[in-house]
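Hey, I'm writing a tutorial for new members on how sequence and structure tokens pair up, and I'd like a real worked example in the thread rather than a made-up one. If someone can provide the structure for the chain below, I'll link this post from the tutorial.
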Amino acid sequence: MKTRLLSAAFTAALISAAPLLSPAAMAQDMPAHAGHGEMKGTMKGQMPKTADTPSTRAFQAANQKMHMDMAVKYTGDTDVDFVRSMIPHHQGAIDMARVELEHGKDPKIRALAEAVIQAQEAEIADMKAWLKSRGQ
């Protein structure tokens, strides 16, 4: 029940941030995720220039760690493989939210980051408990 409330709070926070985070607006200016299409403003095979700031470096480190940790050994059990892959994915969201809390200024986005941390920590705990109940 607690997880559902947190998920509802997270969803509400995303909806309230919709003017800032609309998919149409993001798609125009953001690079594609992990090879899912061309990146705007770049030639194939080239990475766009990024700001070299402490927050950028922290986001890059969190993203790299998340992707490395998501390279799980697959068991062939879809449920287990999904949960094992989602734990580092959710941890990546927590790590990125912590970067926001350390460097961000906007109160609404900081509140969103806090909601992300709370919701994702609860879901990670649920997933770990589910894996443990199956001897994983």
